Amino acid sequence: MHPLLADHRRRAADLLSEQVFAYFATGAVGETALTEAPRTWQDRRLRPRVLAGIDEVAITTDLLGASLAAPILFAPTAHQGLAHADGEVATRRGARSAGLLSVISSRASWSLADVGAAANGPWWFQVYTMRARAITDELVRRAVDAGATALVLTGDTPVVSAKHRLPNGPPEAVSQMPPGIGFDLCGGLPQHTALAQDPTIGPAEIGRLADLSGLPVLVKGVLRGDDVARLLHAGAAGIIVSNHGGRQLDRAVSTAAALPEVVAAVDGRVPVLVDGGLRSGADILVALALGADAVLVGRPVIWALAAGGATSVADMGHALIADLRENLLLLGCADLAQVRDARRAWVAPAP
Ligand SMILES: Cc1cc2nc3c(=O)[nH]c(=O)nc-3n(C[C@H](O)[C@H](O)[C@H](O)COP(=O)(O)O)c2cc1C
């Protein structure tokens, strides 16, 4: 793990209550996928070229119309107000000052209007399609009004998996929980009932959200190459390989293992992103060398938020960018197109 991320994590553990820290840290059930994730990146080795004659690497990235300083995004995570009073507003400010993009959760603490006004530049909205379709649609409309430039439909959460590390029940039981962005739409019902996800949705939901918003819709949570065809057929503008940071199906395959088959199935038609356990420039480099167009980090954003709000979020982004740049130079690779080129065979199997 990059030392700054480790430092933020320690500070978050000191500053947050035990229950709130556990809510962010936990995985599903036996925490198999959670524990496995960092190792799957660390276990890959890279094959550097010598005398590559490079003194600068190009890592700026164009992703669905967004110009980014690097192929790094901040993953949608719920209830960021529990980590820091400024929550998603601070995350978005921090992301933008590092030239990166944040994806804001359907379970955000701050209003989408505030998130939109927090900074200039692109941001994406993550959608949970709820049984109460009218609430989903109203949140999407608010996101569009507030300037979101793409939607991320999370497909891996028909139900929220049990999390045994939370002795006092689901996050809704966290006593400091501020009201979320859908609170005013709940009509007096408890949030977790009124905002429950709809497990019956299928690929048609992609087109429905695209029509409603006029925005590109990415699908998050993909772990199989043979899921890709029906998602692209239904209009997916991008694929996010994810096992939800080990918080959904506990025995789900690791994203490092799933990435190559998804990249092969997509075959360059839309961008492929990946997340889960990525904690350093070297981890990110491995993901890119396995064919990802960009990566997302989840918990490191929360640790940074807790440690020092927008400033620490920006510091974390800058640190990962610098680390990625240095690793690319050491690999002898000049740009992102080269690193993704499978013919160059940058990745070696585990030792
Ligand atoms: C506390 C927490 C809350 C999350 N909430 C959401 C969410 O609301 N929507 C979603 O699509 N993913 C959610 N995720 C999953 C993240 O978007 C992302 O896939 C995952 O955190 C990446 O793994 P990492 O934390 O190891 O970097 C959440 C993850 C965490 C840790």
Largest sheet: 8 strands, parallel, barrel
Question: First CA to last CA: what distance?
Answer: 19 Å
> What number of domains?
1
> If you consult CATH, what is the topology?
TIM Barrel
- Look at the structure and give the CATH class: Alpha Beta
Question: Would you tell me the overall average pLDDT?
Answer: 95
Secondary structure tally, helices: 13
Which ions, cofactors or small ligands are bound in this entry?
A: flavin mononucleotide
What is the overall shape?
globular
Can you name the CATH architecture?
Alpha-Beta Barrel
**How do the strands of the widest beta sheet line up side by side?**
4-5-6-7-8-9-10-11
Query: Which residue ranges are poorly predicted, with pLDDT under 50 across at least 5 consecutive positions?
Result: none
> Structural class, please?
alpha/beta
Helix-strand sequence? HHHEEEEHEHEHEHHEHEHEHEHHE
Characterization of this structure:
The protein is an alpha/beta fold and 351 residues long. It has one domain (3-348): Aldolase class I (TIM Barrel), CATH 3.20.20. The protein is built from 13 helices and 12 strands. An 8-stranded parallel β-barrel has the order 4-5-6-7-8-9-10-11, surrounded by 6 helices. The chain has a two-stranded antiparallel sheet with strand order 1-12. The two termini are 19 Å apart. The mean pLDDT is 95. It binds flavin mononucleotide (FMN). Flavin mononucleotide is lined by residues 24, 37, 75-78, 105, 107, 126, 154, 220, 242, 244-245, 247, 275-278, 297-299.
